[in-house]
């Protein structure tokens, strides 16, 4: 039911500087930058090449929008670093329910809007051996309005996310 690693979420103090590091060092490009008041973050998606299974994987950089959200608290305690991993699935509700049957609590009763038009839920880190685990169903291009990639890459992302 979980088909790939969709992204690794990395908490950082300065989104622009961190994105610049990833782009300069690894040659990644910033595909989108969005803010989510609900999640308390400004986040960038950096596409990690293409994959041979028709999917793509991403690095998600997370900068807290204010004091209150989960990333702000995590950064204050831990400093910068890996905040969560996200598995891709065609059906976030079913995947969350399936984990629930194994006693793994979800953070939200229903999926919420995620990056680039996706629908997401989280599994509690205390039930996942210390790893905050996101389940994500991509739903079309979604973030097309915020795409910063070149047209070829944007078209590719639409194909991947459709
Ligand atoms: C907290 N804990 C973590 C953790 N955050 N452990 C591993 N990884 C993390 N990221 C541990 C923490 O050390 C505590 O352990 C315990 O959980 C409770 O921590 P807390 O500070 O009291 O935190 P809570 O309970 O207030 O919040 C924890 C949860 C929160 C997981 C419920 O982070 C949450 O709601 N996360 C889901 C939303 C989110 O993370 N949004 C930002 C990404 P001890 O000290 O008790 O042992 S948004 C995103 O990814 C998007 C939009 C996307 O991909 O599209
Ligand atoms: Co995420």
Overview of this protein structure:
An 8-stranded mixed sheet has the order 2-3-4-1-5-8-7-6. The protein has helices at residues 15-26, 70-78, 92-100, 151-161, and strands spanning 2-11, 29-36, 41-48, 57-64, 81-89, 112-113, 119-123, 133-137. The model is unreliable at 141-162 (pLDDT under 50). It is built from 4 helices and 8 strands, in the order βαβββαβαβββα. The longest helix has 12 residues, at 15-26. A hairpin with a 5-residue loop joins β6 (112-113) and β7 (119-123). With 162 residues, the chain is α+β, with helices and mostly antiparallel strands. The chain binds ligand V0V and cobalt (II) ion (CO).
Task: Give the secondary structure arrangement, pairings included.
Blueprint: E1 2-11, H1 15-26, E2 29-36, E3 41-48, E4 57-64, H2 70-78, E5 81-89, H3 92-100, E6 112-113, E7 119-123, E8 133-137, H4 151-161
Parallel strand pairs: 1-4, 5-8
Antiparallel strand pairs: 1-5, 2-3, 3-4, 6-7, 7-8
The chain binds ligand V0V and cobalt (II) ion.
């Amino acid at each position: 039911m979980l088909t790939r690693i969709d992204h690794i979420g990395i908490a950082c103090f300065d989104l622009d500087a961190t994105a610049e590091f990833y782009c300069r060092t690894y040659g990644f490009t910033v595909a989108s930058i969005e803010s989510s008041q609900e999640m308390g973050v400004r986040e960038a998606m950096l596409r990690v090449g293409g994959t041979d299974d028709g999917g793509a994987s991403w690095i998600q950089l997370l900068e807290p929008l204010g004091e209150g959200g989960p990333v702000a608290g995590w950064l204050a305690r831990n400093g910068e670093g890996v905040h969560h991993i996200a598995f891709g699935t065609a059906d976030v509700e079913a995947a969350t329910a399936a984990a629930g049957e194994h006693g793994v609590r979800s953070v939200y009763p229903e999926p919420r809007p995620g990056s680039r038009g996706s629908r997401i839920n989280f599994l509690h880190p205390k039930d996942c051996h210390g790893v905050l685990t996101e389940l994500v169903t991509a739903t079309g291009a979604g973030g097309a309005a915020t795409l910063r990639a070149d047209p070829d890459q944007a078209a590719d992302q639409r194909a991947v996310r459709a």
